[in-house]
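Q: How do we represent a protein-ligand complex in a form that can be generated token by token?
A: Start from the inputs.
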Amino acid sequence: MIKIALVGNPNSGKTTLFNALTGSNQYVGNWPGVTVEKKEGVLKADKTAAIIDLPGIYSLSPYTLEEVVSRNYLLDEPPNAILNIIDGTNLERNLFLTTQLIELGIPVVVAINMLDISDKRGDKIDLDKLAAALKCKVVAISALKQIGVEDAANLAIKAVESPKKLPSTIFSGRTEHTLAHIEEALLHDLPQEQQRFLAVKLFERDTKIIEKLQLTPEQIAHIEADIKICEAEFDDDSESIITAERYGFIETVVKSSMTIKNTGLTISDKIDRIVTHRWLALPIFVAVMFIVYATSVTGVGLLATEWMEGGVFGDGWELFGLWVPGIPVIFEDILTAVNTAEWLQSLIIDGIIAGVGAVLAFVPQLMILFIFLAFLESCGYMARIAFILDRIFRKFGLSGKSFIPILIGTGCGVPGIMASRTIESDKDRKMTVITTTFIPCSAKLPIIALISGALFGGIWWIAPSAYFLGITAIICSGVILKKTKIFAGTVTPFIMELPEYHLPTVENILRSMWERAWSFIKKAGTIILLASVIIWLASNFGWQDGIFGRVYAEYSLLSYVGRAVAWLFAPLGWGNWQAAVSTITGLIAKENLVGTFGILFGFAEVAEDGTEIWALLATHFTALSAYSFLVFNLLCAPCLAAVGAIRREMNNPRWLFFAVGYQTAFAYLVAFCVYQIGSLFGGYFNIFTVLALVFVAAFLFMLFKRQNVQVA
Ligand code: GDP
Ligand code: MG
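Then emit the structure tokens for the protein with magnesium ion bound:
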């Protein structure tokens, strides 16, 4: 099977092209770091060729983990050809990687993407000139509009068979001379086409390559002399010489092969003037997120959920004048008709349907949120958010790159944590892994929606406040952690290209929405279903008067588990065993929390007395304790899957322990302060109030303590 690797900068359209070529539905994101692991697919048009989607990279230098991953892949299991995809609206920046790819000795085909945009702008690129300069085939495509994508793939397949060519010599005479020396001294045993890349890397003193080639100290000393001479002549270090000459080459190539028609501001630039404006940017961002969360959780979303709760998973609902009975009603009728044993009936209705139903009821709400997020993502606004927040983050001495994992984390914490790999600094990366899951992921949305709907009567600000609580927790944690010895350090600047704005296609948005919604539904049908059965069993069986059997929930095994830990949460205002148990089951998957409530508070009980759903739940909380419950569950240790991701990224049990411990302790303290200080306003004052005030004071002290961080 022929292997063709898709390589390009983040956001150049690799995933879009991958999907177009393989017909698969890979997640298409609009910020760097989405494609963290390589994905493989078979070419639709030619089943003998495999396409590999690699993480987006800016260079083959080993600065970020992604660059290392991609580079190792290209060196250790070289594909038969590289399809280098380039954002045609940003040629200079993208060609930097190209100049390195053509040195690898692997056939390269350059596909200049975003043809539709450059066409609209009237820019012209002379493909032949570019091809001659790079010594490889060049095509113009639009991955989105599916123009020329097959040609690009065919050229790549053809390139595999074409005779091996030596890369063009793009450096100055002086540098080429040194490179030739290095090749001659150390690399002449290797195939000729592989020598150039290694020579350049040795010239740059790339330690990973030196290790790989297992050079002896004498060999290193030998080329070191050559490199020193060259550096003296340029009065610059070898890496800068190479970078400068690459850009020099690119400049001449672009000048001779590209004519840019309009010199005025593009529409994107005009929008950006407002959207990324120094003062307006933040209020606009806050307003956008407010609208997104308020609409999906309270507005339209709430109506949808009420219909799901009261209708589909309740008594029933009306469809064109016809009465459609709710799922529990249907099951009750069937199960009664076939004389099912009472316990089995209860397991199905009060266990499975109540647990899974309570979770599934939030699907419409989630779909609305996902549509919003997919739109923001693919129109290009998400990239602006990262850009805007980078400015703010840097003021606090934090890396703006942390925000990309966080944005991804709004969907699911697992890829969010994985996306932290784009961060160069190890300390910043660890800090991001620890704080990413503070942002509410889609599994936490049902918790937010439940609390805001059932306990706050759908007040509009609860849901957005949960989102901003997450961001504040991240920033404050970052600021405080940065002041500790472990995390102190300089901030690496984060340069990010802003893609052009464009109207996304309805199909793309729906696809992205459905992908996320479907994985949520799948989870409800598997983990949540299994957990519901267990929770039903545990909440229906136990000892009463020394005899084990069916008991009221108050005597159940589950209640004992809950009471064993509930005292821990009493200072947070919700010391009842149901809340404690739900918090624990939420650690398996956050949706479980809602499912457990569903079972314990009779979500699927066919209410004939007209009591409101969740009415029983409301009797267990006050507004304040409900908010403290929300705060704790949003910030505490994430679900098992996310903890697993943290474990993988940290690769060290102590760090894993620190991360989960920090999250839980932080959640506890914030919820504690919220509840205790909130109670103060209600006139309650005791030793806990004093403690809470001390915590707040200590927190503020840490926050505003002078820091020794150099802001880059
Ligand atoms: P990746 O980071 O390289 O995988 O890039 P993606 O495939 O995620 O694409 C980044 C963004 O560019 C997405 O919003 C795509 O819809 C958009 N995009 C990709 N190809 C084209 C194209 O040919 N024309 C236009 N206008 N947009 C495109
Ligand atoms: Mg991608």
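The CA atoms of residues 123 and 261 lie 5 Å apart. Confidence is low (pLDDT under 50) at residues 31-35.
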